[in-house]
Please model this.
Amino acid sequence: MLKKPIYILSIESSCDDTSAAILQNETVLSNVIANQKIHAAYGGVVPELASRAHQQNIVPVAQQAIQQAGIDKQDLSAIAFTRGPGLMGSLLVGTSFAKSMAIALNIPLIAVNHMQAHVLAHFINEDNQEKPKFPFLCLTISGGHTQILKISNYNTFEILGETIDDAVGEAFDKSAKLLGLPYPGGPLIDKHAKLGNKTAFKFTEPKTKNELDFSFSGLKTAILYFLQREHKKDKLFIKENLNDICASIQFTITNILMKKLKLASKITGITEVAIAGGVSANSEIRETLKSFEKTMGWNTYIPKFEYTTDNAAMIGVVGYYKYLNNDFEKENAIATSRLDINS
Model:
C-alpha cells in the first residue's frame, strides 16, 4: 500500500526575500521568491522597509506557491516557517502568517532554523543530485554567517569553526562598496574577478586563536588602506585596475575559506564536504571546492544556484524531516533574531 504523500507549505522571511514553497516529501513542487530591490538605494538591507515589504508580499507569494504546485490548501499536511536567526521584524511577518494558517487549517506547525535549512538544502530531491553521506563537513557562508560545521545526522550540527567578527558575505559587500560597486556587491566582485589577474595584488590573511575560526574585519581594513594609498598616487587607480582588484580580493577570501576547510578535513578525517549559503554561489569558491575532488580525494557537494540564497524550499525540506519525527511547534511559537545552530 502506497504511503500518503506529505505536503509542506514552507515560509522564509528571515531577511529581505519573501519566499513560499510547496514540497511533496523531499521534492519541490514550487518555490516562489519575491525580492526587495528597494534596499539597493541604501547600500544594504533596511530592516523596517524589509518587514513592510514582507507584509505586502507574504499572501500573494504563498498563494502562488500553492497554485503552481497544483494542489489545494486542504491538501497541506503542515506549515513550516523560519523561526530564526534573522531580522526580527521580517521573521515576525512569516511567523505570524504561518501560525495563522496552521490554526485555520488545523494542521501542525513546524519551526525551522534558517542555518540548518541552508545545510539540509542538499537533501532536496532534484535531478538525481547526489546527497552528502553522514558525517559530512559543511562550509556555511552567507552575509551573516561563516561556519565550518560537522553534520552527524539530520538533527545534529557541531560548530568546528566560525567567524569571530564579520561574515564572509559582509567582507565581499563592504569591499565592493569601497570600489564604488552597487549593493549587493558580492556578485559584482565575482563578475569582475573573471576578467582580472588574481595575483595582481596581495592581501594579508588574518590569523585567529582557534585555527578553524575566521576573521574578516582585518582584511576589510587592509583593503580600505590599500585603496586609499593607491588612490593618493593615482586618482584613476580603482577604475583602471577594477578587474584585478576584484580578482585579488576574491582569491584571498577563497584561500582563507579553503585553507580552514582543508584543515577541518585533516583534523576530523572527514572527506564528505559541502558548501551552503548565499556566498556558495561564488564561482571561484565553487570551482576551487570541486577541484579538491582530484587533489584531496574528497566527495564534494555544491547546491544548485536557486538553493544558495534565502528560499523556502530549503525550509520545507527541514520541515519534512521534522514532520517525520512529529517535531511540531506550539501555536504560541515566537520568532528569535539569534538562534544557535542546534536550536
